[in-house]
Specification:
Blueprint (H helix, E strand, L loop, with lengths): L8 E5 L3 H13 L3 E5 L2 H9 L10
Parallel strand pairs: 1-2
Length: about 60
């Protein structure tokens, strides 16, 4: 049975780099675009700066 394919962008915040890399890999394999960050401050700074959706024209 194949897993359903996702779409869209996910902002992944995880301080454990091994967990973050594994989770990012799984989400990308499922079809999601992923922005990953090691802490909430970095994620919020990127969002405040206008983090574009992956694949969006810049």
């Amino acid at each position: 049975m194949k897993a359903p394919r996702g779409s869209g962008a996910i902002c992944l915040v995880e301080d454990d780099s091994l967990v973050r890399e594994f989770t990012r890999s799984v989400l990308v394999d499922l079809g999601y675009s992923v922005h990953d960050f090691g802490n909430g401050d970095d994620a919020l700074a990127a969002i405040d700066a206008g983090l574009p959706a992956p694949g969006a024209p810049t």
